[in-house]
Amino acid sequence: MSLVINFDDIPDDEEYVFDLVENPDCFKVDPKEGTLKKDVHIQGSLSKLGREVFLRGDVSTEMSVSCSRCLEPIDYQVQAEVSAHYIPDQENDSPEEVVELDVSDIEIEHYSNDRIDLAQAVYDQIMLALPLAQLCRKDCKGICSQCGVNRNRQSCQCSDSDSVDPRLAVLRTLKDKLK
Asked: In terms of pTM, does the model score above 0.70?
């Protein structure tokens, strides 16, 4: 299966409705960000206005990510809306020309040879759907900065006062004086 749609397959006067399932290998996810565990399901429609194409749809999949505090793996269900505005590539005679981008240019994708590749827009929405702080649970205690023990599994003998950054010790002194 492919996430490439031919421009001529999209009717001029109605939407082109699709329901695609793509293998996780189609997307190059940085291992630091996580891994796709399941196929990516994309449902949506494409419509065109002249040579411009508009995508609207929904994406769902499952990713394995690391907890931001304890680094344990978490399975995260991704459900996201995807929308994109595709325009044909312009032949650029001078590739060294500096072009100023407008805010609306960020939402624009380009296509060439009448082939519209949905993969980048879908990938972007998957990554944007992930929370900034991914926690295995709300009360995750994290890893001890002194001994490296996962505090969710066992307690350690390290003192929290020892874990103060020496550059901030002056603030602790000030805090103690204000008490």
From this structure: yes
At 82 the pLDDT is 92
pLDDT tens digit sequence for 17-39? 999 999 988 888 888 888 999 99
Helix (H, G, I), strand (E, B) or coil at 106: helix
> 106: left (phi > 0), else alpha (psi -120 to 50), else beta?
alpha
CA distances from 114 to 7, 121, 166 (A): 5, 17, 60
Contact 51, 111 (CB under 8 A): no
**Given pLDDT bands bounded at 50, 70 and 90, which one contains residue 81?**
very high
- Full 3-state SS string of 29-72: CCCCCCEECCCEEEEEEEEEECCEEEEEEEEEEEEEEECCCCCC
Taking the C-alpha atoms of residue 4 and residue 112, their distance in angstroms, rounded to an integer, is 11
Q: Which residues, other chains included, contact 67 with Cβ-Cβ below 8 Å and sequence gap of 6+?
A: 73, 74, 134, 135, 136, 140
